[in-house]
């Protein structure tokens, strides 16, 4: 019991300090109040578990700095979702050990569990006002996923046709630039039908995410001297982009990371394979052309 209590106390202490820091970092008053309340509750939860521990309790300072960095980079919604995901597992453990505690401690732990379960609804209500960019995640996904699939297809096609990486890189940029304008225009028209989002912002998020992905995936073709190495480096970057954003969205919207990542990677692989086959077919059909 002491080992479990030590782990729970350390986790609650970490949460208390992080919520306290986050409440001072965000600017929205209502969100500050919610996070300050969470910090007080987590401190009380720490006090509950501390009574079962006979030694000083510490947590990883590096983890605290890492979560601060994630809040700055990805926004408080992502970090709070990540914390709540961990707390769901902790709550399940609390319920398992609840019958083993003395009756007075059971009542305290039951109240603690109720507070933990109420956290998610409270912070989501506050975050919907504080971080409206979450509404545009779908447009960012649209831009990134389409860019990764389309540009990887272009590069794979050139792998079957040409042995000049610079040619493939330039072709990817040209196709990607034109496609980013097309996708931004489509996102603008789509958003015009939705009163909850801004059409110009929707177009900007879609177009910018598209062109940034295009530039990143084209870089290996300008930096590396062989077509095969440039292609596989670009594919590796595409996979990292996919896995990173799928993980981000799976945490944010509580989706299954493995399923979505596998689906995205399968689509990427099939696109590359079919595009390469098409390019190889063109090269064989037009052998007299100097690719």
Distance between the termini: 70 Å
- Tally of DSSP β-strands: 0
Unreliable runs, pLDDT <50, ≥5 residues? Answer: none
Number of discrete domains = 2
Query: What structural class results from the helix and strand content?
Result: mainly alpha
Mean pLDDT: 80
Number of helices: 10
User: Over all CA atoms, what is the radius of gyration?
Assistant: 25 Å
Strand content: under 5%
Helix and strand pattern = HHHHHHHHHH
What kind of sheet is the major sheet? Answer: none
| Helical residue percent band | over 70%
What sort of overall outline do the alpha carbons produce when their principal axes are compared? elongated
In short:
By secondary structure, the protein is mainly α. It has helices at 2-25, 29-50, 61-74, 76-97, 103-130, 137-161, 165-191, 199-223, 227-253, 257-285.
Explain how this protein is built.
With 291 residues, the chain is mainly alpha-helical. It folds into two domains: 2-130, Ferritin (Up-down Bundle); 134-285, no CATH class. It is built from ten helices and no strands. α3 (61-74) crosses α4 and α4 (76-97) packs antiparallel against α5 (103-130). The radius of gyration is 25 Å and the shape is elongated.
Question: What order do the helices and strands come in, and which of them pair?
Answer:
Elements: H1 2-25, H2 29-50, H3 61-74, H4 76-97, H5 103-130, H6 137-161, H7 165-191, H8 199-223, H9 227-253, H10 257-285
Looking at this protein, list some descriptive labels.
single chain, 291 residues, Ferritin, 2 domains
């Amino acid at each position: 019991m002491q080992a479990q209590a030590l782990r729970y106390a350390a986790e609650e202490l970490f949460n208390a300090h992080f919520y306290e820091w986050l409440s001072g970092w965000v600017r929205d008053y209502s969100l500050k109040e919610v996070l300050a309340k969470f910090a007080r509750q987590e401190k009380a939860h720490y006090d509950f578990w501390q009574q079962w521990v006979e030694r000083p309790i510490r947590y990883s300072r590096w983890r605290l700095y890492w979560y601060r960095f994630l809040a700055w980079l990805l926004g408080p919604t992502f970090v709070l979702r990540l914390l709540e995901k961990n707390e769901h597992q902790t709550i399940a453990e609390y319920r398992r050990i609840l019958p083993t505690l003395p009756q007075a401690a059971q009542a305290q732990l039951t109240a603690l569990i109720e507070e933990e379960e109420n956290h998610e609804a409270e912070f989501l209500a506050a975050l919907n006002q504080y971080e409206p960019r979450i509404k545009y995640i779908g447009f960012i996904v649209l831009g990134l996923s389409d860019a990764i699939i389309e540009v990887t297809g272009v590069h794979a096609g050139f792998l079957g046709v040409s042995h000049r990486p610079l040619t493939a890189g330039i072709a990817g940029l040209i196709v990607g630039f034109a496609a980013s304008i097309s996708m931004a225009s489509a996102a603008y028209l789509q958003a015009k039908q939705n009163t909850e989002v801004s059409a110009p912002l929707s177009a900007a998020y879609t177009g910018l995410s598209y062109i940034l992905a295009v530039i990143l995936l084209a870089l290996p073709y300008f930096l590396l001297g062989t077509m095969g190495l440039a292609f596989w480096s670009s594919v590796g970057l595409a996979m990292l982009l996919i896995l990173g954003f799928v993980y981000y969205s799976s945490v944010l919207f509580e989706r299954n990371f493995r399923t979505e990542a596998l689906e995205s990677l399968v689509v990427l692989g099939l696109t590359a394979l079919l595009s390469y086959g098409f390019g190889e077919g063109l090269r064989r059909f037009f052998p007299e052309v100097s690719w």
